[in-house]
Amino acid sequence: MSKKHRISADDKVKYVQDYLSGLGSQDDICIKYKIRSKAKLQQWISMYNSHNELKSYDSGGVAIMTKGRTTTYNERIDIVKYCFLCNWTFK
């Protein structure tokens, strides 16, 4: 069984910038940097071009909420109170 290889956000940006600057095709970049999926590189390119942050998502096994709905100030206060009440940590 192979161990999952984590790619840092800085490396993702480098790979995308290499592709966008013409240093190789998507296939070339995937081979050069041992990216297992061309679709993953395409996803990073899309995120980069949309000015979204490329993240490494190494949370140590803790689920990370990356997108959510807009909340009001009072809802956020209620959420924090609930987390303290239940002795939960939140990120």
Give a verbal description of the structure:
The structure is a single chain. The protein is an all-alpha fold and 91 residues long. The protein has a domain at 7-57. 49% of the residues lie in helices and 0% in strands. The chain is built from 4 helices and no strands. The protein has helices at 9-20, 26-33, 38-49, 73-85. The longest helix is centred in the C-terminal third of the chain and has 13 residues, at 73-85. The two termini are 31 Å apart. One of its GO terms (molecular function) is sequence-specific DNA binding. This is Transposase.
Write the layout of secondary structure elements.
Layout: H1 9-20, H2 26-33, H3 38-49, H4 73-85
Q: What helical percentage do the residues reach?
A: 40-55%
Query: What structural category arises from helix and sheet content?
Result: mainly alpha
Number of helices: 4
Question: Averaged pLDDT, please?
Answer: 81
Query: How many whole angstroms does the radius of gyration measure?
Result: 18 Å
Characterize the main sheet: none
Low-confidence stretches: none
- Ends apart, CA distance between termini: 31 Å
Strand fraction band? Answer: under 5%
Give the strand tally.
Answer: 0
General form: elongated
Q: Output the helix-strand order.
A: HHHH
